[in-house]
Amino acid sequence: MSDIRFSHGNALLSVSLNALRAFESAARHLSFTAAATELGVSQSAVSHQIKALEGQLGVALFRRTPRGLVVTDEALALAPTLTETFERMARLLAQFHDGKRREPLTISVVGTFAVGWLLPRLAAFEQAYPFVDVRLLTNNNRVDLVGERLDAAIHFGDGSWPGSRATRLLETELTPLCAPTIAALLSAPGDLARVPLLRSFRSQDWLSWLKVAGAAHIALTGPMFDSSFLMAEAAARGHGVAILPQAMFEGDLANGRLVRPFSQSVSADAYWLLVPKGREPTPALKAFEHWIVEAARAGSPRG
Predict the structure, then answer these.
(1) Same structural domain for residues 194 and 241?
(2) Using the 8-state DSSP alphabet, how is residue 9 labeled?
(3) Does some domain include residue 303?
(4) How many structural domains does the chain have?
């Protein structure tokens, strides 16, 4: 059995690593049985390890009550640190594969781009750079690169974000999209006055398109969404007409969930890759930045 040895003052304390693991699991589950199942040992083994740990530390860690197992104050002080330590160890060990360390890369991506462009191409990146361990988060175009400890983010906008170095990826054209049942009601842009217009926080998108289409008199009265992806889903379910970047919804257009009722479109902002200024890029970030810029420039195929 492996022990951890550390000194406290003039004393040398030796603690079983297995006992610490048994205690952490039992404290988290408040159950010796659940801890035994998680660790793949018997309940009596967990009980023995915890009793040994209590003897080594000289304190009680659990109390049995009519309502079940309860941790003591000493256990409450010890358990969170152990949980965090074991989780950090697991994350570090997970980075090693086939004798090589995989480098984590945490990216926060606006949901529309993640689903409509990045995910269909992510396998190609992973095949080209197998040493990168991608951790993908989504955002609604609001993110704190430094505060959230992100390596990079992908946003939609004009490229002006303080504290970030922005690289343009894709420009967009916006156009109305809706379900086939709604499209059947629309023969000219003026008919949009008879259906809900689904909106994002960017109200100027509809205003610009209606002006180009000669229907600037139509009032914006439909519901508002904080996510274009959610707005597109509402449109596909027949709740109204959404103004969206068509390139991000080619899959829905191909399978008929969404249709484009009018030919007019308007130019909008672009999708940008953001990285924190002043931070030395890791090899994983350099690989991703090179790949995504080239993929966006080439219009690389999906998959």
Answers:
(1) yes
(2) T
(3) no
(4) 3
pLDDT by residue for the chain (303 residues), tens only, comes to 466 555 555 555 677 888 899 999 999 999 999 999 999 999 999 999 999 999 888 899 999 898 888 999 999 999 888 988 888 777 666 666 565 667 889 999 998 999 999 999 999 999 999 999 999 998 877 777 877 888 999 999 888 888 889 999 998 899 999 999 999 999 999 999 999 999 988 888 999 999 999 999 999 888 999 888 899 999 999 999 999 999 999 999 999 999 999 999 999 889 999 998 888 889 999 999 999 999 998 864 444
Residue 224 amino acid letter: M
Based on the fold, state whether residues 120 and 263 are members of the same structural domain: no
Q: Give me the domain span that covers residue 220.
A: 172-267
Q: How far is 167 from 297, CA to CA, in rounded Å? A: 12
Mind spelling out the 3-state secondary structure of 195-256?
CCEEECCCCHHHHHHHHHCCCCCCCCCCCECCCHHHHHHHHHCCCCEEEEEHHHHHHHHHHC
CA distances from 123 to 71, 119, 126, 143, 266 (A): 45, 8, 5, 25, 32
pTM of the model: 0.64
CA separation for the pair 48, 26 (Å, rounded): 12
For residue 164, what are the β-bridge partners?
Answer: 276
CB 155 within 8 A of CB 271: yes
CATH of the domain at 282: 3.40.190.10
